[in-house]
Structures are given as C-alpha cells and as structure tokens.
Amino acid sequence: MESESKRKKESPNTAELAVTASFPDEVLEIVLSLLTSHRDRSSVSLVCKDWYHAERWSRTQVFIGNCYSVSPEILTRRFPNIRSVTLKGKPRFSDFNLVPPNWGADIHAWLVAFAAKYPFLEELRLKRMAVSDESLEFLASNFPNFKLLSLLSCDGFSTDGLAAIATHCKNLTELDIQENGIEDSSGSWLSCFPESFTSLEVLNFANLTSEVNTDALERLVSRCKSLKVLKVNKSISLEQLQRLLFRAPQLEELGTGSFLQDLTARPYADLESAFNNCKNIHTLSGLWEAVPLYLPALYNSCANLTFLNLSYTALQSGEFAKLVVHCPRLRRLWVLDTVEDKGLEAVGSNCPLLEELRVFPADPFDEEIIHGVTEEGFVAVSFGCRRLHYVLYFCWQMTNAAVATIVQNCPNFTHFRLCIMTPGLPDYLTNEPMDEAFGAVVKTCSKLQRLSVSGLLTDLTFEYIGKYAKNLETLSVAFAGRSDRGMQCVLEGCPKLRKLEIRDCPFGNEALLSGLEKYESMRSLWMSACNVTMNACRRLAKQMPRLNVEVMKEDGSDDSQADKVYIYRTVAGPRRDAPPSVLTL
Amino acid sequence: MSQDTTVDSPESSDGASLMSFDTELTLGLPGESRSPARAPAFAQGHKKNCTKRGFMETVIDLNLGTSHISMPRGQNSESRVSGTGKYPAAKAQVIGWPPVRSFRKKTLEGSSKLVKVAVDGAPYLRKVDLQIYSSYQDLFRALEEMFTCFTTRGDYNMEERKLTGALNGREYVPTYEDKDDDWMLLGDVPWKMFVESCKRIRLMKSSEAVGLAPRTPTNC
Lengths: 585, 220
Hints:
Number of strands of chain A: 23
Distance between the termini of chain A: 48 Å
InterPro entries (chain B): AUX/IAA_dom (IPR033389), AUX_IAA (IPR003311), PB1-like (IPR053793)
Number of helices of chain B: 5
Structural class of chain B: alpha+beta
Function (chain B): Aux/IAA proteins are short-lived transcriptional factors that function as repressors of early auxin response genes at low auxin concentrations.
Oligomer: heterodimer
Distance between the termini of chain B: 16 Å
Number of strands of chain B: 7
Radius of gyration of chain B: 20 Å
Number of helices of chain A: 22
CATH architecture of the domain at 114-150 and 164-208 in chain B: Roll
Structural class of chain A: alpha/beta
CATH class of the domain at 114-150 and 164-208 in chain B: Alpha Beta
Largest interface: A-B, 76 and 65 residues
Strand content of chain B: 5-15%
Helix content of chain B: 10-25%
Shape of chain A: globular
Shape of chain B: globular
Subunit structure (chain B): Homodimers and heterodimers.
Largest sheet of chain B: 7 strands, mixed
CATH topology of the domain at 114-150 and 164-208 in chain B: Ubiquitin-like (UB roll)
Keywords (chain B): Auxin signaling pathway, Nucleus, Repressor, Transcription, Transcription regulation
Family (chain B): Belongs to the Aux/IAA family.
Helix content of chain A: 25-40%
C-alpha cells in the first residue's frame, strides 16, 4: 500500500489524477494511516487537496515543537481525530534560568480546546510547559480514555495535581514525571490510585522527593501485572526496593531509590537475589548514594543492561570501573564526572557496543574547580567504542588534537555536544583556539545533526560549520566567535538548520538580519547577550510578518539593546499571553 | 599556582599568553555583565569595553592560571608539585553557565555528605561522599585510588598517620577542617563523629604539617 502512495506522489498526470479521484477517501485514509513519520505526513499533505484532507482525517498523533507556532484552534480545525499530542514550550535556555518566570507556554488553553475537540485524547507529552494543578485536575476529569502522561522539564504543578491524575484516570498506562520544577508537598498522591486500578505499565516518579506510602506502592506494583517501567524516588530504601522487585519480576526498566542502607544480617544475599529475579531489566537508573559495598549485587543484572544511568551517583573511578566490567552490552551510558578518566578508560575497554555517552559535571557551580574528566577520558572511549554517535561531555580542558582523534575513531557522530566549562578556553596544550577541533567534527561527521560548541572560538569555527555541516539541525553557541561573519556563515551554509541558540557572542544586527529569509525555514532562533539592537529587531519583525520577534529586557539595561531575543515562525500570529517583561515586536 | 611558567609572551603577569587574546576579542560580550568572583548583583549596564574585558580577564586569570598554560598534563599531573598548594581562585559566576539544569544540581545536593579533598600539589580538588564509607580504612582506600601517586606503595600507618607517596617519596598527612574551623589530624575522633564534623579534607605535605596537633589551629 505504501508503494502505491509513493507512485501516485511521483506522477501527477491527468490520468493518474482521474484514478485518484475515483479512489474512495476512506481507503486513502486507511492507506495514509499507516504513515507514522511526521515528515512523511507533511509531505503527503502537500500533494493535492484530496490528499491533504485524507491525511488530516487519518492523523492521530501530532508533534508540535513550539507551542506558539500554532494555536489550539488552528490545530483542532485541521486535525479532527487526534489521540496523541506532544507539545514543547519554552526555549531550551529556560533550563538554565535565562528565561523570565511566567514566560508562558501554559498548557491550559490547549486542554480546554482538546476537551471540546478531542474528548478521546489518550496521550499527552509535554516538555518545558507551564502546567498547573488546576490543569492536571482538568485533564483528569475531562478525558475518559486518557492513558499516557509524560511531563519533562515542566513546572507550576504540585503533587496535588498528580493526586488528581491518580484518582480519576481509570485507564492510565503511563505516568512519567521527569526533571520538573514540582512542588513536592506530600507523597500521598500515590495512594490515590484506586484498588481496582491495574492498567499501569510505566511509573516514573524519580523526580519527587517526598516519601510515598510504601504499602500502597507495593500493592500497586503487585496488581499491575503489565508494569514494565518502575522508577522510584530517593525515599525508597533498598529493603523496600527488594520487596518491589519480588513483586514485579517482569520489569524491564528499573530506577532504584537510595542505594544506601545499613543492611544487616542476610540482606546482601536478598538484594542480589531480588535483582536476579528480574531477568528482563535492560535499563537501570537511580542508585542515589550508592554504597560500593552493595554494587556487586547488581553485577548479574548488568549483563543484560543496554542503558545505565548513573548520573545521580557520585561513583569514584575504582568502583565504577569494577561495575562497568559487568556491562558488556551497554549502548547508552550516563555518568557523573566523578568517575574521571580512569573510569572512562574502563568504559572504552568493556563496552564495545556503546552508542551514547553523557558525562555530567558533579560540581559545576562550586567556587573551586573539582577534578572531573579531561580529554583523555573521551579519547579512551573513542578508541574502544567505535559505534559512538551521541556524546554530551562536560570537562575543564580539551585539545584540538584530542577531538581530531576522537572523530577519526568515531566518524558517525549525529550529536556532538562538548562543553568546556571555562568560557573561552583555548587548547590548553597549544594555546590555540578550538576552531580545528570543531572543524574536524564537521568535516568528518557528515551525519551530524546536533552540535554544541565551546572553548575559545574564532569565526573560523563557523566558517567550517557553514561549509561542512550540511545535515546540521541544532546548533548551540556560547562565548564564541569574533564578528558577524561567524553567524552569517552558519545562516548561509546550513540548509537543514532548525534551531539556533546563541548566548554571549559578538554577533550583531548585520548577522541577525542576514538570516531574514532563513528564519521561516527554522523552528526558532535565540540570541542573548549579543550585540543586537531593538531597532534591528523591529526591522526584522516588520519585514517578516510570519515570524514572532520577542525581546526580553533586563532590568536597567540600555533601552536600545535587545538583551534577549527569541524569534520563531508561526501561523498563529503574535501571542497574547506574554508577561510584561517580554515585548512582542 | 606555580610561578615558573614556560610562557613565551612579552607580558610578565599571570596568564600572560592568554592576555594576548584579550586584546583581540574587542567586540566583547555585552549584556549580562559579570563582576569578578561573586558580587551580589551583576551590573546590568552595557559598558562594553570595560565590563567585558573585566570578565574575560577575570575568567582567564582566575580559572586558567598556570595550570593551563603550556603545561602538558600527563597522567601524574597531580603529583607535579606546583609550589605552595594554593587552589585556583574563585570562578567567575555567570548566569546559566555551565549549561546544567538546576534540577540536576538540586538533586545532587541534599542528603549526601560530600566534602572536598585537596592534595597539596594537585591543581584540582575532588569530592568524596563520607556517608558511603564505614571507617577510616575505607576512606583511605578510596583516597589512595583517587590520587594515583599513592597507589603503588600506599601505606597507611596508623601510628605515624602518614601516607607514603610512591612517586616522589613525599609523605602526606591527612588533615581535615572541622565544624569549628580547626584543622585536625584524621583518626583522632571516632569515625561517626568525624563524618559529622568534617567540612573538608586536605592531604598536607608532612613538611608543612609540623606543629599540627589536635585542637591546635594550623599554621598554613
């Protein structure tokens, strides 16, 4: 059926169109309903009017990368049958406190529209949205078929909102609460799941801090026989975890609670057998305050692990190295830089299948520099893990030569996010800028989709990016560049660029305005602490009516400077819910 | 920080070779201004030249110092003695940098008892979570692993309270700063009491530890 659609797409002559015209809509809709990729669907909808309509009637999932690019009215008008919505709100730099509070991205108006038009909504995935308890209560009460709630990096709600979800969503299969700014007043929300409720498959409350009723949790886990993912919070002790594991041998993803306990008597053996009892675990996280003594209990389980998230455990290199020896099948690894280069060497030696590595700094904000990892660790991993294609690496020093070696070993990078934590730091061995490092990355890694640069960088880095990074979609830049030319090279050279976020760079009006045409093909542009003026922003806004140009002013700053600029394409016009600190031009 | 850096630059001040970048980066970083160290309110003006230069200078000066200038960092960089064992000065604080989610930062704080460990001669500190160790022996085993120059003949002699450094034959005395800001020798008090009162640990070179006794303020 798919090839039929493709054939029709390619030869739109009259005879073919006549065939299409006699093709019942319902059948076309069935055909198109098999298409799942958003991009394919977008292409399909552009073919002709019939296809546009067939596509819109058959679409059940929608992904909106910027909630202000479209309005609830426009969305519900175009797509009448949506069951699953993914919405992203605030600009990514809001994660780092660069966006004023009350900026917007409130889910409520969307929920009201959905209650009217999509009463059968089943799934809602939100990222960086403002979500209130009132909204969660509304959600819980207005969608009888609601199954899946995923909140990532959202804020504005408390455990009361979760209680509403637990109480009313009788068909809930997934509750995934991650990395949110949540007001955690009480763990009693968990006890709100009725005794008759058995459908849960995914429960992730690792984010929360308050204690939950462990009896209620145990009963919940016992009766939800399809539970595949369980990620508990720090308040759950090892002993409690053991009991949970015995109740849920079918678990595939586990987030432990605190791994710190004064276990006495026979506890260690019990812990080990509890883990051994769960033969299907392929993802492991949590492990707060992991006492080295208890880690060996995990060794058997580690054999099947494909994803290990130790980013909340300050393991030292020795303990970590001993653990990683038991994880030969690892594909994704998140760690803290407390494992140091020695720990990463152990990764290189033991995890040949590794595809993704994220090394987070344990102490980025301390007034003194705490050791962490260096270029050596990264190089060691690259020698041992040739399939590596996703890296997020925080370090205090780097060299051009090391990066060149790394990409030579691993030319398939799709995501290369290197954060040298001291702004503007050159290659510490040669004192040169880090231009050649990122030059090597873009020259060698033709599949590169996402790049974050750091260190001392001249415009040359951006010339390289513009010239070579033809598949680049997301670029993050901080404390880099010398002149407007840098940004211009990127805007002119990267055909697939969708998101550009820049802070503290000497790029000004000329650079901003050189991208006039480009911004409509991008999702968004963020520029803060650069050299952009209000007048240039006004000019941009005037010439490009389909872009929203928003400026956030700092207190006491020069009137003519545009301190923070957020520009995005939209079909919904300027937004009306911006706070006073955000000016829409 | 060692003063005998091998920097070939006309200027003679600290961070000299990196200062040359300073003059090249004239366009600066307007907007969020940065004052050195931790001034309570960031100046909000756009005094481009001076604020920005101040920032770059500060960053280069404070963070890089000598450990970043033309000094190859081999595996035993910790063992390389760089003089008085002073630590890098305070970092310049920049909003939203490094780009680590505040959520992550909050999660790591909290119940663990993390203390900084400094070793005379090492430019960077480390942190250990005292809660996960159950005795002084445990802790020292971990410290030995961390500071590799001690591993081969690492030998904790309870009597002498010294750690023998294999590589350079120096001896280190484990000391800690307690709640009363006094520097004490490790091992004086019961383990649990130590965990509760320890604020930070310093492995001091024996030569400097002369005169250090329980309940006596340190000379350093």
